[in-house]
Amino acid sequence: DVKVTQSSRYLVKRTGEKVFLECVQDMDHENMFWYRQDPGLGLRLIYFSYDVKMKEKGDIPEGYSVSREKKERFSLILESASTNQTSMYLCASDLSGTVFFGPGTRLTVT
Amino acid sequence: AQSVTQLDSQVPVFEEAPVELRCNYSSSVSVYLFWYVQYPNQGLQLLLKYLSGSTLVKGINGFEAEFNKSQTSFHLRKPSVHISDTAEYFCAVSDPGTYKYIFGTGTRLKVLA
After folding, report:
1. With an 8 Å Cβ cutoff, are A42 and B36 in contact?
2. Least CB-CB distance to B104: which of A42, A97, A99?
């Protein structure tokens, strides 16, 4: 089975902190994604990466950056966390037209 | 650009009754279509997918969906629901050969005893 893991299930950070969300997949997938999930808005794409060191902005990249130094790992960075970034963050990887999701990180910024 | 519409934000249904969750997408020459389920405080799990071939797709947990190109719909059905089916369901679409998946806003299915 494909496994996508995220470093934290729950995270509480203060406004202005730099936040790292880590994601690892174990199936050698080329494509990886970061989504944000908010009630009534569904899933919105923040960034995706189609190869090591390659990335493209999604629909809501403002306030976020990403890093992909190794194929299996895709990190989402909040340079200076703000309260409007309180949300559920879902990492995913893609194989043959199917997306596999991690369990999610529920981030609260106070 | 592709878009996905899930008109029903919540669907209550009694246990053992049938259910249909609706999904419509914007027109395209060809699409891949998906349904995902999300249980509380978990990530999304793939229920079923349509990539090509038969328009009736069977998935896990007794769910099925039918691809209707003329109506640009991909409705999810189950003939008899269980309490354990209570979850949020997301429809998604992608254009073949692209990296972008567009998700609907989700439908909360609540199965009542």
Report:
1. no
2. A42
